[in-house]
């Protein structure tokens, strides 16, 4: 086999025929089963909605590699770049965020280098200073070592908490002690951010998100009220229910928050998203209280959920400590790589 027999095509899923669209979905399902062999199958409808979703603040380019008869997808690459009208443009304009993969049966035939070359060309076209990519597979780490370019920007893991292994007495204890340890604070809950809190909450969310350890990655969030409302709309369109709990102090300040996202189409799991506490309100057990309160809520509201999924950088010791005590365990290790413009230029010749 050689790369001349492959068809590399830049496409959007919405522009494909039904047959081609199904072949693309087949590829992503094979990828999922390779990485998560023991998991229940994902909802195909949800997978398609996720792939069709478009962020109005980010440009996304996607490439698929087909066999010569266009009856099988062999590889995939995606590149995202912040658009000039985005509130996050100044902070993130120098990086191209990318991912790529190759079907297990078609590796070592040059497809990975073909896709990486296209990603590098995109980064140069957009005048980026670096490209950030990541992998959860040993094969991906070996490929990075083989190429000999880039640095490890950060390492972490997808962690899982199985509901039948939770120490519910401990969670109830954390929840009961919360209002005692954080005297004067109360927990509030919402799905959409109340209009009265929108500016304050998005500023708080941006603050705590930017406190998450980044390693050598270069990114910075700026979640404005407009960005949040767009996110809420798009999540609803895909069928997600986005639950948020926050702690409010006597003086009205928002001091901490945690959130989960649940989709009935994948009813066996929920995604634990950001948890954060303002630096000036730390050391009062707010993180423990919020996480325990949310977990107890999930148990009662969604008894069908089998496990909670979250992601943590290895260097995020405070959150890892809470998660470990809750019962979260590593499931998949991930590694992100940062490749400089100089390395990309040299690779492209």
Which features does this protein show?
349 residues, alpha+beta, Aminopeptidase, 2 domains, 12-stranded mixed β-sheet, 11 helices, 12 strands, 28% strand, globular
Verbal overview:
The structure is a single chain. The protein is an alpha+beta fold and 349 residues long. It folds into two domains: 3-128, Aminopeptidase, CATH 3.40.630; 159-334, 3-Layer(aba) Sandwich (Aminopeptidase). It is built from eleven helices and twelve strands. The chain has helices at 18-35, 44-52, 89-92, 111-125, 138-147, 168-181, 198-209, 225-237, 286-301, 317-326, 341-348; strands at 7-10, 58-66, 73-82, 95-102, 130-135, 151-162, 186-190, 241-248, 254-262, 269-277, 307-313, 329-340. Strands 1-2-3-4-5-12-6-11-10-9-8-7 form a twelve-stranded mixed sheet, sandwiched between helices. A hairpin with a 6-residue loop joins strand 9 and strand 10 (269-277). Helix 4 (111-125) crosses helix 11. It is globular, with a radius of gyration of 21 Å. The mean pLDDT is 95.
The side-by-side strand order for the widest beta sheet comes to 1-2-3-4-5-12-6-11-10-9-8-7
Assign an overall shape: globular
Strand-residue proportion:
25-35%
Regions with little confidence, pLDDT below 50 for 5+ residues: none
What is the helix tally?
Answer: 11
SSE string: EHHEEHEHEHEHEHHEEEHEHEH
Q: Report the top-level CATH class of the largest domain.
A: Alpha Beta
Query: What's the assembly state of these chains?
Result: single chain
The CATH superfamily of the largest domain appears as Gcn5-related N-acetyltransferase (GNAT)
Q: How many separate domains make up the residues?
A: 2
Structural class: alpha+beta
- Cα-atom radius of gyration: 21 Å
The biggest sheet, with number of strands, parallel, antiparallel or mixed sense and barrel status, is: 12 strands, mixed
